Amino acid sequence: MTDLAGRTFLIAGASAGLGAGFARAVAAAGGKIVLGARRLERVEELALEIGELAMAVPLDVTDENSVIAAFDAADAQLGAVDGVVCNAGVGTGGRSTDVDAAGLRQVLDTNLLGSYLVAREGARRMIAAGSPESGRGRIVMIGSITAEQNGTGDAMYAATKAGVAHLTRQFAREWVRQGINVNCLQPGWIPSEINAEWFASERGQQDIAALHRGRLLDSDALDDMLVYLLSDRSRQVTGATFTIDDGQSL
What family, per the record (predicted)? Predict the structure, then answer.
């Protein structure tokens, strides 16, 4: 029942890291994938790697017209989207007294507004395609354990991820009778382009050593749960937040 064959999923922020890994996991389960990102050349390369189950589209999640165009392209080539993964995100580390307003706006617009716009357009398309009758609509929001932590060095990032977790519950309630399940995955610290430079630094290595198990998450740690939440097996799961962090937040 975790077979995703015959279904189409749009993954926002699919150019690298978690998003690229999610795309490979969904394809391995038989799903068709729309790979969306601002760095079109990256998702085009990934689409070639995955093969006929994947297509690449330009996607700026902060731009409503770009979001709509991505879903239009998906409809035209792969058919109606059955599920969405809201993974696009950025961070701007530093003390709150030092980060400029432009950096704050970029984080807010990408992580929170972008997740809102992608999830909303996905819901519109799924409802129009018959999700109230099929019950097969799926939206997975990607949050972070920073939503429940203090002192991580990126207050706006943490605040937007707390917002993502709450949006999950709001959307789940709003669309509960529309055949759409909305859930949130909150990963712990995991290697990515956002944090690679930090964790390679001396202070970053100290932070890793201070984790309860002294390690970062594996890059594929969320894949099985993601596929589950996109599948029929999760038909009775909505409005939930799942923390997967190897005990980092204990």
Answer: Belongs to the short-chain dehydrogenases/reductases (SDR) family.
What are residue 183's phi and psi, to 5 degrees?
-135, 165
CB-CB contact of 174 with 232 (8 Å): no
Three-class SS state of 55: strand
Q: Is 0.85 surpassed by the pTM of this model?
A: yes
Q: Which of 9, 157, 175, 228 is catalytic?
A: 157
Give the domains, in start order, of the chain with CATH numbers. 8-244 (3.40.50.720)
Among 3-7, 91-95, 173-177, 214-218, where is mean pLDDT lowest? Answer: 91-95
228 an active-site residue?
no
Residues 142-162 as b/e (b if ≥16 CB within 10 A, e otherwise) read bbbbbbeeeebebbbbbbbbb
Overall size of the chain counted in residues: 250
Q: Which two tokens stand for residue 138?
A: 């799926």
> What b/e sequence results for 74-112 when a residue is b if at least 16 CB atoms lie within 10 Å of its CB, and e otherwise?
bbeebeebbbbbbbbbbbbbeeeeebeeebbebbbbbbb
